[in-house]
Design goal:
By secondary structure, this protein is α+β, with helices and mostly antiparallel strands. It contains three helices and four strands, in the order E-H-E-E-H-H-E. The protein is globular, with a radius of gyration of 13 Å.
């Protein structure tokens, strides 16, 4: 099992709009690729002094090939759409993990 994790820090003033968009549009679009088995969305519980709130969006895949296919064929457009909507109001970093 592979976990593709995207941690996003979103400005507090955009948080509720972003969260609704993630749940209604972005995560369903990623899941609609058919490359992931399930997804989870978690709020990171820590104090932030920079005016952001952090979330972990987790996508679970059966194979490494599925994750690579997503990254090569779908991620660029998904990232661009996210950037167009929330550019300048978020930071993101991505991690790929393998279950052991």
């Amino acid at each position: 099992m592979y976990l593709y994790n995207v941690t996003i820090g979103i400005d507090k003033d955009a948080e509720q709009e972003w969260l609704a968009w993630m749940k209604a549009e972005h995560i369903p679009d990623v899941m609609g690729t058919g490359l992931f088995l399930s997804s989870r969305l978690y709020k990171v519980l820590h104090d932030s002094e920079d005016g952001t709130v952090s979330y972990s969006v987790q996508y679970f895949a059966a194979t490494l090939e599925n994750v690579i296919s997503y990254l090569e064929n779908f991620a660029p457009a998904m990232v661009e759409k996210h950037q167009q909507k929330y550019g300048g109001r978020h930071v993101a970093f991505r991690t790929l993990l393998e279950e052991v």
